[in-house]
Write the C-alpha cells for this entry.
Amino acid sequence: MAEEMSELQTWDDVIIDFLAGKKSAEEEKYIKDEVKKIAEIYKRQNYYGEESIAVLFDPKKSKKEKSQLAVDFQREKLQEILLLEQKPEDLDVTKLSEDYARKCADIENKYAASGWITKAAKDATSVSFATHVAKLTHSKIDSPSLYDSVISVKTDIITTASLTEKAIDGAVAGNQFAPVFQFLELELNGRKLAAEFANDSCQALHFFAKDGQELALWNANFKNVLAGDSPSTHALAKQVYFPILLNKTNESDSYHLLCHMKSSSLAHAIYNKVFDESQKAPKDLRSKGKYSEYPVFSFVANARLSVTASNHSNASQLNGKRGGKLHLFSTQPPTWQSQLKPPLYKKSLFDNFSHPSIKLEVDYLREYLLRFERIELSVKNPHRRKWIEKWVANIIDELLNYAATIQALPAGWSDTENSKLKLEHQYFLDPHRDDEAFQNLRKGSGWQSVICSDFSQWLNRRLVGKDKKFTPQAEHTRLWASLLEDPLREYNEMIEASSKHYLLKEEV
C-alpha cells in the first residue's frame, strides 16, 4: 500500500489506500504472469546462455530491494526485458507494450472509487458477517450463516460466547465476493467500516458519491450485510433433530439438535492457540536442543479435519487463513486405575509401563519404520526423522507422566528388602526417599543413562512385534536413547528444584 495505516486519518484515506492496494496487486500479478510467458520463450530458444538474461529471469537472483514496492519492482523488470538487445523473433515487443498499457487502463477503470463501490454495494447481498458458517460443513450449502450474539457463558462447555475476543468470519457466496468482505473489514480508529452502516445517515462514503441518492443506496445495500437472512437449515448440513417431550405446547422446544453448525470463530481461536506466534522461538530452540526460558506447549493426539480441497476461502475468509483445516482435540477419558502400585516386584519400570495411547504411538512408529526399513530412508532422512521423533516424543511424554504418578506415592516406598526393581529405576521413581546413603548414591551414579538405555531396549522390543517383521539397528537404539536424554534431564532438574523448595519450607 502507498501509505502506512497509522497515517490514514479519515475513511476517505482508508478507502483510497485500499483501492490503491488492490490496483497495485492486480497490476503486479499481470506483469508477473507476462514475465513468466516471456521467460519461457527465451528459455525455449536457448537465450539463457547469456548470463545477464539468465539472471534477469531467475527469481532467486533478481529480487526487489526491501524499501521497494513489489509492483515497482515488477514494472522495472518488465521495462528491462523490453529493452533487451537480444530478442526472440516471435516476441512482439510492440504488442506487449500495447497490451500492458491497455491492462493498466482497465485496472484503473476497474478500481475507480465510485464505480467499484457501486458494484460492491450490489454484490453485498452475497456477503455476510458470521460466527457460524454453513459452508464449513459442505461447500454446496446455500443456507445463511449465523452471527451468534449470545453473551451468556456456560460453565460446563466451551461455546462462542466463551471467547473474550471473537474473530468474525466472512461468509461469501463465492471467492469473487471476497474483496467486498475485505472492504467492509477496513478499520479506522478501532472501528470497522461495516459498523458504520448501522447508522442510516452514514457519511463514510460521502466523498465518493455523486449525490445523496447514490450515497443512500450504497448505505442501504451495505447495511443488509449486518442484518442477515432468516435462519434455515439445509439437507447437507446434517443437522439431526431428535424429538423430546412431544407434549410441550411450544413445538420449537420439542426437539434436541444433535449436530450443531460449526463455529468458525471458535475454530479460529483454537487455530491461533495451536499456532501461537509466541511459541515459534521456544519451539525452534527445542528442535535445536537448546535452552529456552519460555515453556513449550504441545497438544497431544490432536487431529485435523480438511474442510475444503483447494480454494479454502470459498467456504469462508477465516477458513482460507486456516488452510481449510479444523483442529480436533482428543476427548478420550483417562484410563481407570483402581489402585496405583509401584513396580516393586518387577526388575524394570517398563514392565508396568502400558497404556492404550502408548500402543497407538508405537503402532504408528512401527508402521512408518516398516515402510522405510532401510536406515537411510528413515532416521537418516530429515523429513521422515521429524515424524519419527514426534511419535517417540509422545511416548516419552507418557513415560514421564507415568513416572510422576509413581513419584506422587509416599516417599520411601522402594525401601524394602523384597524389591526386585533396579536401583537406577528406584533413583528415578522414588527421588524423595529419606535415606542419606540412598540419596548420595543417587546423586553420584549415572542412573539417567541406564534409564535411557532401558527405554531404548524396551521400545525396540515393542517395535519388533509378534510377527518380528522389524529388526532394530544400532542407529535406532542410539536414537531412542538420545531422544530421552534431554526430556529426562529437564524433568529431573524440575524434581531436584521441587525437593530443595520442600526442604527449605521444612526448615522454616
In short: Strands lie at 127-130, 169-172, 187-188, 191-192, 241-243, 255-257, 303-306, 325-328. The longest strand covers residues 127-130. The chain has three domains: 5-111, 115-317, 349-507.
